[in-house]
Structure formats: structure tokens, C-alpha cells
Design brief:
CATH topology of the largest domain in chain A: Rossmann fold
Strand order of the largest sheet of chain A: 7-8-9-3-10-11
Number of helices of chain B: 10
Distance between the termini of chain A: 28 Å
Number of strands of chain B: 0
Oligomer: heterodimer
CATH superfamily of chain B: MetI-like
Number of helices of chain A: 9
Largest sheet of chain B: none
CATH class of chain B: Mainly Alpha
CATH topology of chain B: MetI-like fold
Structural class of chain B: mainly alpha
Shape of chain B: globular
CATH architecture of chain B: Orthogonal Bundle
Distance between the termini of chain B: 42 Å
Number of domains of chain B: 1
Strand content of chain A: 25-35%
Largest sheet of chain A: 6 strands, mixed
CATH superfamily of the largest domain in chain A: P-loop containing nucleotide triphosphate hydrolases
Structural class of chain A: alpha+beta
Number of domains of chain A: 2
CATH class of the largest domain in chain A: Alpha Beta
Number of strands of chain A: 21
Chain lengths: ~375, ~220
Amino acid sequence: MIEVDIAKSLGNFSLDLSLNLQKDLTVFFGPSGSGKSVTLQTIAGWMEPDSGTIRVNGLVYFDKRRGVNLPIHRRRIGYVLQEPSLFPHMTLFENIAYGASGLSSGERKRKVFQMIERMRLKGLENHFPFQISGGQKQRGALARALVASPLLFLLDEPFASLDNPVREKLRLDLLRIIKEDNVPFIFVTHDVEEAFVLAEEMVVLNEGRVEQTGNKEDIFYRPQTHNVAKFFGAKNIFRGKIAEIHPEEGEMTAWVEQKGFKAVIPYRKGTVVGEWITFCIRPEEIMILKEGKPIKGNLQGNVFKGEIVRIVERGAEHTLFFKQGRDDYDFEISLSNLAYRSLHLREGNRVSVAFKWESIWLIPQEK
Amino acid sequence: MEESVFFSLRLSLQVAAVATVLIVLIGTSVAYFLARKDFRGKELLDILLTLPLVLPPTVTGYYLILLAGRNGLVGKYIFHWTGWNIMFTWYAAVLASFFVALPLMLKTTRAAIESVDQNLINISYTLGHGELKTFFKVILPLSKKGMVAGTILSFARAMGEFGATLMVAGNIPGRTDTMPIAIYTSASSGDWSTANIMVIFFTLVSGAFLYIANKLSKKII
């Protein structure tokens, strides 16, 4: 269990957060400059917060008021950085052995070779860092940190500078280690897919503050702030003024001024007419209606007629930009290639789009 | 004549070697603190130790007299307790060479230590190793280049030391006349033949030293 309650000022940037992490794998997600690395550095002891406390499994690492600041080498933390940080003047074996101090030389050798096998590095023991690839270097850094039997593992975008197939393989390696070793991990990334593959729990950071914590589904489908919605690609985020409320039916109508349309959205208790609200619909949740094919389910009249103004191929999917009003475009729609092909669409086509009731998410009011 | 020439040569090498050993040990430690710690008076210390690089050697020698002479700040206590004074001994020559060549070691070593990636140092701490271990296992090996350069420069400077040495060690034949001083003495008294021999010897020895130093440093680095 990791408790972090700190504040830190660095020039223009200020960090202020309070976290209570219980899961085995927590992902810190956020844009560059949001404070993810700084937070990790304070947990590891590389940087001292201005105030607050840090506790790991009950052990006090830092307590400003009581004057406690455990030195780095006593914190038993594993740390892997984005930049390869193997010692350039030591072989891979020596690097990994560096973490295994306090053992007899025979015991150390055994442990190091065991780790080399585990991290698929066999045969590279006597190589220097400049002789091995990026992926191998990062596996080496992981091995070195693991061999020291840390109580907590911190990874700061460790796979960011590697190419995709290598990244994916390393993520699986990581998940395997977590399962086998039972060490809590904090993994920092600004890659949505990576966050999703790894997270049991996610902490979304922005400008030194926590925007939201929760599991993947909560963050993705029920973003609590505009920023979180934006970071995870909610794309169709609208600000509207409430025109009518029908609490008995559980619905209300919002007029989206900028786009010139009205939408029927789920009623939120306490909302009054004239109030401004924000709601979002994920691009993959918007449906393109086929001529003559009725849609099952609850559309609540959220059907719009308009034109496909632009189509962008994105490899495994297509993004379509739909316009129904004065603005350049109103909805961003995501279709799998299969769905796209079956619709035979072209730029300029006139279509009807709709979204289901369950796809609408009302973003809670910003404090 | 040959005896005195050989003596001067041997003395120069001895003084330079001893001074260099002291410079490497003390210089590296001081450079580490200057590179990695913050403390009151840090910049003042840096300036004081670097001054001999800028000041004329005779001025440095003068300060050393004020410090280590019979009535000097430190010298008078030593004389009071032991009846011994450093002036006009070969130890004084070492003292002079030490202060004059130290800044060269300090500057190069400090820069070398400062250029070691802070991340690597932090990682070493994170892996459970304290400051001392990290210094010997990570910082030192990665600063080797700068330290070797500093050592070579210091030795060279110590070998060629003249002004400060003259002030504190004097020019006692067979006792404190290092080669640069002996050459000066011979030349100023018109003994060109002795001077010529000493100059040739000294140049050859210095050249050989540089050659060996270059070869060795390639091996170490």
C-alpha cells in the first residue's frame, strides 16, 4: 500500500497530490509536464518534496513535519527510466550483479544467471551496453532492479523509445514478472494503449494535480473531467445549455449552441433549466444508419442528418467527420475497417447518424 | 658537475612525484565535494585553491612563506612543538609544487565528475549502494579521462615549478636545487656548458614522460 501526500514547487510548475494506491499495478497517465516523473522521483528519494508524507507498506519514507527523509539507498525501490541507464563501463552481467549485493559470490552468480534467463538475455552476459539493442538494455535494467528484491517498482515510460513489437513483448514480460514476484508497480506512460493493457488502477495527472483515479472502465467510459475525456480520446465533447428537463422520464434536453443542435441526454439529479453542462460520446459509439435498416435500442431521438465531409484512414480503422450544422464538422466517428467497407461510404455522402442512450456520458461539474 | 646534474634531475622527479600523489588524493576528494555538494563558503574555497593558477608563482611563494615560515601562521606552531621548520627543505619544494599544480587537477577532475550522468548516480543509490561505494564503482570509473588528464597536467606543472619553489625552498646546492632552479643558477653565472646539459636532459626526460603518459592514458581509458 502506497500513500503519497505531497506538494512540490519547481519554478513555474507546482505539484500537489494525495494518493492511496492499493493495487499491484498502478498506471500514472498524463501528458508531458503533468508531474508523473516528479512524483516518481519523490517516492524514490531522488527529489525531496516541499511538504507532506510518503509511506510505503507502513514504512515512512518521508515526513516533512517530523524531519524524516530516508536516504535513497535504504528505500528498497526498483527504478527503470526511459533512457537506458545501464552502467556503460560494466558488462551486462556486472550491471545486473550490481543490484545483488550482500550475497556470497556463488549465490550472487546463481541469482544473476537466473535473472538473465528470465529476461531472455542468455548469451549477452559479457556484452557491454553499447553492444546490445534498446530492448535488451531495458530488459537488462529491469533485471538489475529486480535482482535487488525491491519492495516497490517504479517505471518511468520504460518502453517509450522502443519500437512497437518490442514494446508489446516487454509489456507481457512485465505482466509475467508482476504475477511471479508479487511486487507492486507504478508504471508511468502517456500512451493510451499501454495504459490500458497494463493498468489495474489508473491515476490521471495533469499540471501537477490528480484529475481522476479509478479502473480502466471508469476512466474510459466515465471520465470525471473534461481533461480526462480529452486525454482518452472521447473526442465528441459538447457544452450545452439545458432547455428542458423531464426527471420522471430520466431525461433532459441540451442545446449545443456552438454546433446548432439539440440532444436528449440522461437526466442528472439537481440539474435546472438554463444550466450549462458538458457531455461526451466516444467516436466508436456513434452509428451510421443504413438506408432502410432500423436500429434496435434506445435512440431517444438523437438522430442527425448530415454529410460526411472527410474520411481518414488510420490503418486498422477509419475516422469519419460528420457535419450537420454551420461548424466545420460536428461529430468524429470511428469505424472498424470491416464496418467501413460494408457501408460503402465516400466523402460528400449524405447520411444519418445516431448514438444510443448508454453512449452518452455527462461529465461532472468541474469544481 | 655530473653529480649535481643528476641530483637536480632526481630531486625534480622526486618532488614532482610526491606532489602529484598528494594532488591526486587531496585534489580528487576536494573536487568531489565541489562537484556534488553545496556548503557555505564553497565558491570561496574554489577561488582560494585556484588562485595559484592566476597569481605569479612568486606571489604564491610569498603567501606560503607567510603560512609556513618560521614565524608563519602555521609554521610558528610547528616550530614551537618540534623545533623544525619546512623552509629550505625539499618538503617545501613539494609544498610549493602542490599548491601551484593543484588547480589543474581540481578543474579537470571537477568537470569530469560533474559530467557523470546524475541518473546513473541515483540508480546506484537506488540499488542499495551508499555514497562511498557509488563513488568508487560508478563516479570514479566514469571520470577517469578527466582525472588522468589532470594528473598528467599536474605532474608536468610540478616538474617545471620554479618561482614559488625558489621562495620557499631556496637554492641550496645538493639540497633544494631542483632542475629549473639549477638551470637558472648556471645560466645566470655564465656556466653555459652545465646549463646546456641540464636543459637537454630535462627536455628529454619531459618528452619521455609525456610519451609514456600518453601511452598509459590510452590503456587506462
